[in-house]
Amino acid sequence: MKQRSSELLFLTVCAFIIAVLSSCYTNLVAPPTPIQTILIKSSNTPSATVEVVFTPVPTETETQLLCETATLTQTALANTPNLLPTNNPDLCSEIYCILEHDFSLQRPISGNDNDWIDRFYPYGSTAGGIYVPHHGVEFNNASGTSVLAASDGLVVVAGDDLTIKYADYNNFYGNLIVIEHDLPRYAEPVFTLYGHLSEIEVTEGQWVEAGERIGAVGAAGAAIGSHLHFEVRLGMNNYDQTYNPALWLIPKQSTDGALGMLAGLVVNQVGEAQMNRQLTLEALEENDKGCKLRYYFETYAGADLNSNEQIHENFALADLPAGDYRLTMVAGKVFEFYLSVHPGKISFVSIKIP
Protein backbone atom coordinates (compact mmCIF):
# COMPACT_ATOMS: atom_id res chain seq x y z
CA MET A 1 0.00 0.00 0.00
CA LYS A 2 1.32 3.44 -0.91
CA GLN A 3 1.71 5.87 1.92
CA ARG A 4 -0.47 8.83 1.13
CA SER A 5 -1.54 11.10 3.94
CA SER A 6 -4.88 11.90 2.30
CA GLU A 7 -5.85 8.24 2.56
CA LEU A 8 -5.25 8.10 6.31
CA LEU A 9 -8.31 10.22 7.09
CA PHE A 10 -10.40 8.12 4.67
CA LEU A 11 -9.30 4.86 6.31
CA THR A 12 -9.96 6.29 9.78
CA VAL A 13 -13.54 7.11 8.83
CA CYS A 14 -13.98 3.64 7.29
CA ALA A 15 -12.57 2.01 10.43
CA PHE A 16 -15.09 3.91 12.57
CA ILE A 17 -18.00 2.79 10.39
CA ILE A 18 -16.81 -0.82 10.44
CA ALA A 19 -16.44 -0.69 14.22
CA VAL A 20 -20.04 0.47 14.57
CA LEU A 21 -21.32 -2.25 12.24
CA SER A 22 -19.28 -4.92 14.00
CA SER A 23 -21.51 -4.55 17.06
CA CYS A 24 -24.09 -6.56 15.11
CA TYR A 25 -21.90 -9.68 15.09
CA THR A 26 -22.40 -10.92 18.62
CA ASN A 27 -25.80 -12.61 18.34
CA LEU A 28 -26.25 -14.87 15.36
CA VAL A 29 -29.23 -16.09 13.40
CA ALA A 30 -30.14 -19.67 14.31
CA PRO A 31 -28.61 -22.22 11.91
CA PRO A 32 -30.91 -23.70 9.25
CA THR A 33 -32.35 -27.19 9.42
CA PRO A 34 -30.58 -30.05 7.55
CA ILE A 35 -33.06 -29.92 4.67
CA GLN A 36 -33.34 -26.48 3.16
CA THR A 37 -35.92 -25.11 0.76
CA ILE A 38 -34.26 -22.29 -1.15
CA LEU A 39 -36.13 -19.89 -3.45
CA ILE A 40 -34.20 -18.83 -6.54
CA LYS A 41 -35.74 -16.01 -8.54
CA SER A 42 -34.96 -15.40 -12.19
CA SER A 43 -34.47 -11.78 -13.16
CA ASN A 44 -35.57 -12.67 -16.69
CA THR A 45 -38.91 -13.90 -15.41
CA PRO A 46 -39.53 -11.85 -12.25
CA SER A 47 -43.03 -13.23 -11.82
CA ALA A 48 -41.72 -16.81 -11.63
CA THR A 49 -40.22 -18.21 -8.46
CA VAL A 50 -38.62 -21.65 -8.60
CA GLU A 51 -38.64 -23.69 -5.41
CA VAL A 52 -35.57 -25.87 -5.04
CA VAL A 53 -35.11 -28.45 -2.29
CA PHE A 54 -31.53 -29.24 -1.32
CA THR A 55 -31.19 -32.71 0.15
CA PRO A 56 -28.68 -33.49 2.92
CA VAL A 57 -27.23 -36.49 1.06
CA PRO A 58 -23.49 -35.79 0.50
CA THR A 59 -21.45 -36.65 -2.56
CA GLU A 60 -17.73 -37.22 -1.99
CA THR A 61 -15.42 -35.63 -4.56
CA GLU A 62 -11.83 -36.56 -5.34
CA THR A 63 -10.71 -33.74 -3.05
CA GLN A 64 -12.78 -35.29 -0.27
CA LEU A 65 -15.08 -32.31 0.00
CA LEU A 66 -18.72 -32.99 0.74
CA CYS A 67 -21.27 -31.20 -1.37
CA GLU A 68 -25.00 -31.24 -0.80
CA THR A 69 -26.00 -30.98 -4.45
CA ALA A 70 -29.05 -29.13 -5.67
CA THR A 71 -31.20 -30.69 -8.37
CA LEU A 72 -33.23 -28.72 -10.89
CA THR A 73 -35.34 -30.08 -13.70
CA GLN A 74 -34.70 -28.78 -17.20
CA THR A 75 -37.98 -26.83 -16.93
CA ALA A 76 -36.76 -25.10 -13.77
CA LEU A 77 -33.38 -24.49 -15.35
CA ALA A 78 -35.05 -22.80 -18.32
CA ASN A 79 -36.68 -20.38 -15.89
CA THR A 80 -33.36 -19.60 -14.21
CA PRO A 81 -30.91 -18.86 -17.06
CA ASN A 82 -28.51 -17.13 -14.69
CA LEU A 83 -27.54 -20.43 -13.09
CA LEU A 84 -24.71 -22.63 -14.31
CA PRO A 85 -25.77 -25.84 -16.09
CA THR A 86 -23.84 -29.11 -15.83
CA ASN A 87 -23.07 -31.94 -18.22
CA ASN A 88 -26.12 -33.86 -16.97
CA PRO A 89 -28.95 -33.21 -19.48
CA ASP A 90 -31.67 -34.05 -16.95
CA LEU A 91 -30.43 -32.52 -13.71
CA CYS A 92 -28.54 -29.37 -12.83
CA SER A 93 -26.24 -29.85 -9.87
CA GLU A 94 -23.57 -27.87 -8.03
CA ILE A 95 -25.34 -24.58 -8.66
CA TYR A 96 -25.30 -24.19 -4.91
CA CYS A 97 -23.27 -26.45 -2.65
CA ILE A 98 -22.51 -26.77 1.03
CA LEU A 99 -18.83 -27.72 1.28
CA GLU A 100 -17.29 -29.50 4.25
CA HIS A 101 -13.89 -27.83 3.95
CA ASP A 102 -10.57 -28.51 5.66
CA PHE A 103 -9.58 -25.25 7.38
CA SER A 104 -5.97 -26.05 8.22
CA LEU A 105 -4.61 -22.94 9.94
CA GLN A 106 -5.19 -21.20 13.24
CA ARG A 107 -5.67 -17.44 13.29
CA PRO A 108 -2.37 -15.54 13.62
CA ILE A 109 -3.98 -13.17 16.15
CA SER A 110 -5.46 -14.25 19.49
CA GLY A 111 -9.19 -14.13 20.07
CA ASN A 112 -8.40 -11.79 22.96
CA ASP A 113 -7.28 -9.26 20.35
CA ASN A 114 -8.85 -8.41 16.99
CA ASP A 115 -8.79 -11.67 15.04
CA TRP A 116 -11.43 -10.52 12.50
CA ILE A 117 -10.26 -10.45 8.89
CA ASP A 118 -10.41 -6.85 7.64
CA ARG A 119 -13.26 -6.40 5.13
CA PHE A 120 -12.05 -3.11 3.64
CA TYR A 121 -9.07 -4.66 1.83
CA PRO A 122 -9.56 -8.46 1.64
CA TYR A 123 -7.69 -10.88 -0.58
CA GLY A 124 -8.06 -10.05 -4.28
CA SER A 125 -9.45 -6.58 -3.58
CA THR A 126 -8.16 -3.16 -4.63
CA ALA A 127 -10.19 -1.38 -1.90
CA GLY A 128 -12.25 0.37 -4.55
CA GLY A 129 -9.31 1.02 -6.89
CA ILE A 130 -7.07 2.62 -4.27
CA TYR A 131 -4.40 -0.09 -4.10
CA VAL A 132 -2.94 -2.96 -6.09
CA PRO A 133 -4.80 -6.31 -5.85
CA HIS A 134 -4.24 -7.68 -2.36
CA HIS A 135 -2.30 -10.92 -2.02
CA GLY A 136 -3.18 -11.46 1.62
CA VAL A 137 -5.54 -10.40 4.40
CA GLU A 138 -5.15 -7.94 7.23
CA PHE A 139 -5.80 -8.00 10.97
CA ASN A 140 -6.02 -4.46 12.35
CA ASN A 141 -4.43 -4.27 15.79
CA ALA A 142 -2.32 -1.91 17.85
CA SER A 143 1.44 -2.00 17.51
CA GLY A 144 2.91 -4.61 19.86
CA THR A 145 -0.06 -7.00 19.66
CA SER A 146 1.15 -10.62 19.68
CA VAL A 147 1.49 -12.39 16.32
CA LEU A 148 1.07 -16.17 16.55
CA ALA A 149 2.22 -19.05 14.36
CA ALA A 150 -0.75 -20.35 12.34
CA SER A 151 0.52 -23.94 12.48
CA ASP A 152 3.57 -26.00 13.46
CA GLY A 153 6.46 -25.31 11.12
CA LEU A 154 9.99 -24.23 10.33
CA VAL A 155 10.93 -20.54 10.19
CA VAL A 156 12.53 -19.94 6.79
CA VAL A 157 12.55 -16.11 6.80
CA ALA A 158 12.96 -13.83 9.82
CA GLY A 159 14.15 -10.33 9.00
CA ASP A 160 13.46 -7.48 6.59
CA ASP A 161 12.99 -7.25 2.84
CA LEU A 162 15.31 -4.31 2.17
CA THR A 163 17.67 -6.36 -0.04
CA ILE A 164 15.63 -9.48 -0.86
CA LYS A 165 12.25 -9.03 -2.54
CA TYR A 166 9.33 -11.11 -1.29
CA ALA A 167 6.74 -9.03 -3.19
CA ASP A 168 6.87 -6.69 -6.22
CA TYR A 169 9.42 -4.37 -4.64
CA ASN A 170 11.75 -4.11 -1.67
CA ASN A 171 10.57 -2.90 1.73
CA PHE A 172 7.02 -3.99 0.94
CA TYR A 173 6.59 -5.90 4.21
CA GLY A 174 9.31 -4.09 6.18
CA ASN A 175 9.90 -6.75 8.82
CA LEU A 176 8.52 -10.19 8.04
CA ILE A 177 8.47 -13.84 9.06
CA VAL A 178 7.80 -16.79 6.75
CA ILE A 179 7.07 -20.26 8.16
CA GLU A 180 7.07 -23.47 6.12
CA HIS A 181 4.42 -26.05 7.06
CA ASP A 182 3.87 -29.69 6.15
CA LEU A 183 0.09 -30.03 6.18
CA PRO A 184 -1.51 -33.50 5.86
CA ARG A 185 -3.82 -32.76 2.91
CA TYR A 186 -1.18 -31.08 0.75
CA ALA A 187 1.60 -32.75 -1.21
CA GLU A 188 3.43 -29.42 -1.51
CA PRO A 189 4.76 -27.28 1.33
CA VAL A 190 2.56 -24.47 2.62
CA PHE A 191 4.10 -21.14 3.63
CA THR A 192 2.56 -18.51 5.89
CA LEU A 193 3.87 -14.94 5.79
CA TYR A 194 3.53 -12.34 8.54
CA GLY A 195 4.32 -8.77 7.45
CA HIS A 196 4.75 -5.17 8.73
CA LEU A 197 6.01 -6.44 12.10
CA SER A 198 7.35 -4.21 14.86
CA GLU A 199 9.19 -7.11 16.51
CA ILE A 200 10.60 -10.42 15.30
CA GLU A 201 11.08 -12.98 18.07
CA VAL A 202 12.19 -16.05 16.11
CA THR A 203 15.20 -16.91 13.96
CA GLU A 204 15.62 -18.71 10.67
CA GLY A 205 15.85 -22.47 11.18
CA GLN A 206 13.79 -22.39 14.38
CA TRP A 207 10.87 -24.79 14.82
CA VAL A 208 7.69 -23.20 16.16
CA GLU A 209 4.40 -24.61 17.40
CA ALA A 210 0.90 -23.50 16.43
CA GLY A 211 -0.21 -20.58 18.59
CA GLU A 212 3.33 -19.69 19.68
CA ARG A 213 4.17 -15.97 19.76
CA ILE A 214 6.62 -15.21 16.97
CA GLY A 215 6.54 -11.41 16.82
CA ALA A 216 4.43 -8.31 17.21
CA VAL A 217 2.12 -6.24 15.03
CA GLY A 218 3.60 -3.07 13.56
CA ALA A 219 3.54 -0.72 10.58
CA ALA A 220 6.89 -1.42 8.93
CA GLY A 221 7.26 -1.28 5.15
CA ALA A 222 4.40 -0.14 2.90
CA ALA A 223 1.77 0.08 5.63
CA ILE A 224 -0.76 2.72 6.62
CA GLY A 225 -1.44 2.21 10.28
CA SER A 226 -0.48 -0.76 12.38
CA HIS A 227 -1.82 -4.15 11.30
CA LEU A 228 -0.72 -7.68 10.52
CA HIS A 229 -0.51 -8.58 6.84
CA PHE A 230 -0.98 -12.34 6.54
CA GLU A 231 -0.43 -14.50 3.44
CA VAL A 232 -0.67 -18.17 2.49
CA ARG A 233 1.66 -19.43 -0.25
CA LEU A 234 1.46 -22.92 -1.72
CA GLY A 235 4.34 -24.86 -3.26
CA MET A 236 6.92 -22.06 -3.25
CA ASN A 237 7.65 -19.00 -1.16
CA ASN A 238 6.81 -16.66 -4.05
CA TYR A 239 4.53 -13.64 -4.31
CA ASP A 240 2.70 -15.17 -7.29
CA GLN A 241 1.94 -18.34 -5.29
CA THR A 242 -0.42 -16.68 -2.80
CA TYR A 243 -3.94 -17.98 -2.09
CA ASN A 244 -6.84 -16.52 -0.16
CA PRO A 245 -6.04 -17.07 3.53
CA ALA A 246 -9.75 -16.87 4.41
CA LEU A 247 -10.12 -20.36 2.90
CA TRP A 248 -7.38 -21.71 5.18
CA LEU A 249 -8.15 -20.10 8.53
CA ILE A 250 -10.44 -21.90 10.99
CA PRO A 251 -13.77 -20.03 11.15
CA LYS A 252 -14.35 -17.84 14.17
CA GLN A 253 -16.49 -19.18 16.99
CA SER A 254 -19.44 -17.41 18.56
CA THR A 255 -21.71 -18.22 21.47
CA ASP A 256 -23.99 -19.98 18.95
CA GLY A 257 -21.24 -21.99 17.24
CA ALA A 258 -18.87 -21.52 14.35
CA LEU A 259 -19.41 -18.84 11.75
CA GLY A 260 -19.68 -19.83 8.09
CA MET A 261 -18.38 -18.66 4.73
CA LEU A 262 -19.67 -17.72 1.30
CA ALA A 263 -17.52 -18.40 -1.76
CA GLY A 264 -18.27 -18.64 -5.43
CA LEU A 265 -17.38 -18.21 -9.04
CA VAL A 266 -18.65 -15.60 -11.48
CA VAL A 267 -17.99 -16.41 -15.14
CA ASN A 268 -19.24 -15.26 -18.53
CA GLN A 269 -20.92 -17.41 -21.18
CA VAL A 270 -17.61 -18.96 -22.29
CA GLY A 271 -16.47 -19.73 -18.75
CA GLU A 272 -14.02 -16.86 -18.22
CA ALA A 273 -13.76 -15.63 -14.64
CA GLN A 274 -15.07 -12.09 -14.25
CA MET A 275 -12.96 -9.54 -12.38
CA ASN A 276 -14.13 -6.61 -10.21
CA ARG A 277 -17.78 -7.68 -10.23
CA GLN A 278 -19.61 -6.10 -7.30
CA LEU A 279 -21.88 -8.25 -5.13
CA THR A 280 -24.12 -7.61 -2.14
CA LEU A 281 -25.05 -10.14 0.54
CA GLU A 282 -27.93 -9.29 2.85
CA ALA A 283 -29.28 -11.26 5.80
CA LEU A 284 -33.00 -11.97 5.51
CA GLU A 285 -33.64 -11.62 9.24
CA GLU A 286 -32.62 -9.03 11.78
CA ASN A 287 -30.67 -10.18 14.79
CA ASP A 288 -31.80 -9.39 18.32
CA LYS A 289 -29.98 -6.06 18.16
CA GLY A 290 -32.16 -4.99 15.27
CA CYS A 291 -29.35 -5.28 12.73
CA LYS A 292 -29.92 -6.72 9.28
CA LEU A 293 -26.36 -7.50 8.24
CA ARG A 294 -25.29 -6.42 4.77
CA TYR A 295 -21.94 -6.96 3.07
CA TYR A 296 -20.50 -5.34 -0.07
CA PHE A 297 -17.64 -7.11 -1.82
CA GLU A 298 -16.11 -7.87 -5.23
CA THR A 299 -14.74 -10.71 -7.27
CA TYR A 300 -10.95 -10.88 -7.45
CA ALA A 301 -9.41 -7.91 -9.24
CA GLY A 302 -6.51 -9.60 -11.03
CA ALA A 303 -6.23 -12.51 -13.44
CA ASP A 304 -2.96 -13.52 -11.75
CA LEU A 305 -4.66 -14.12 -8.38
CA ASN A 306 -4.91 -17.80 -7.53
CA SER A 307 -8.07 -19.64 -6.57
CA ASN A 308 -8.07 -22.44 -4.04
CA GLU A 309 -7.26 -25.75 -5.72
CA GLN A 310 -10.20 -27.41 -3.97
CA ILE A 311 -12.77 -24.61 -4.29
CA HIS A 312 -11.94 -22.81 -7.59
CA GLU A 313 -13.48 -19.53 -6.40
CA ASN A 314 -13.09 -15.94 -7.51
CA PHE A 315 -14.78 -14.42 -4.48
CA ALA A 316 -14.99 -15.34 -0.80
CA LEU A 317 -16.54 -13.77 2.26
CA ALA A 318 -15.54 -15.22 5.63
CA ASP A 319 -16.95 -15.13 9.16
CA LEU A 320 -20.66 -14.91 8.38
CA PRO A 321 -23.36 -15.66 10.96
CA ALA A 322 -25.32 -18.80 10.08
CA GLY A 323 -28.69 -18.13 8.51
CA ASP A 324 -30.50 -17.27 5.29
CA TYR A 325 -29.27 -14.59 2.91
CA ARG A 326 -30.01 -12.89 -0.41
CA LEU A 327 -27.05 -12.54 -2.80
CA THR A 328 -27.40 -9.99 -5.61
CA MET A 329 -25.22 -8.80 -8.47
CA VAL A 330 -25.89 -6.38 -11.33
CA ALA A 331 -24.52 -7.29 -14.76
CA GLY A 332 -26.88 -5.77 -17.32
CA LYS A 333 -29.70 -7.10 -15.13
CA VAL A 334 -30.11 -8.06 -11.52
CA PHE A 335 -29.02 -11.57 -10.58
CA GLU A 336 -30.61 -12.69 -7.32
CA PHE A 337 -29.99 -15.83 -5.27
CA TYR A 338 -31.34 -17.02 -1.94
CA LEU A 339 -28.99 -19.22 0.06
CA SER A 340 -28.11 -20.44 3.54
CA VAL A 341 -24.82 -20.12 5.40
CA HIS A 342 -24.00 -23.08 7.65
CA PRO A 343 -21.74 -23.07 10.73
CA GLY A 344 -18.14 -24.02 9.93
CA LYS A 345 -18.87 -24.71 6.26
CA ILE A 346 -18.62 -23.01 2.88
CA SER A 347 -21.72 -22.09 0.89
CA PHE A 348 -20.60 -22.10 -2.74
CA VAL A 349 -22.53 -20.38 -5.54
CA SER A 350 -21.82 -20.51 -9.29
CA ILE A 351 -23.04 -17.57 -11.37
CA LYS A 352 -23.00 -17.34 -15.15
CA ILE A 353 -23.64 -13.93 -16.68
CA PRO A 354 -23.94 -12.49 -20.22
Brief rundown of the structure:
The chain is mostly beta strands. It folds into 2 domains: 27-101 and 257-354, Immunoglobulins (Immunoglobulin-like); 104-247, Glucose Permease (Domain IIA) (Distorted Sandwich), CATH 2.70.70. Helix content is 6%, strand content 35%.
| Poorly predicted parts | 1-11, 15-94
Which structural class do the helices and strands define?
A: mainly beta
Tally of alpha and pi helices:
2
Biggest pleated-sheet summary: 7 strands, antiparallel
Protein model, in words:
The protein has 354 residues and is mainly beta. The protein has two domains: 27-101 and 257-354, Immunoglobulins (Immunoglobulin-like), CATH 2.60.40; 104-247, Glucose Permease (Domain IIA), CATH 2.70.70.10. It is 6% helix and 35% strand. It has helices spanning 5-21, 74-78, and strands spanning 36-41, 49-60, 66-70, 96-99, 137-140, 146-148, 153-160, 175-181, 190-195, 199-200, 207-208, 213-216, 227-234, 242-243, 253-254, 257-258, 260-267, 278-283, 294-298, 315-320, 323-330, 334-341, 346-352. The strands form six sheets. Strands 5, 7, 8, 9, 11, 13 and 14 form a seven-stranded antiparallel β-sheet that branches. The protein has a four-stranded mixed β-sheet with strand order 4-23-17-20, with no helix packed on it. The protein has a four-stranded antiparallel β-sheet with strand order 19-18-21-22, with no helix packed on it. The longest helix has 17 residues, at 5-21. The radius of gyration is 21 Å and the shape is globular. The protein starts with a helix and ends with a strand. Mean pLDDT is 78; it is low at 1-11 and 15-94.
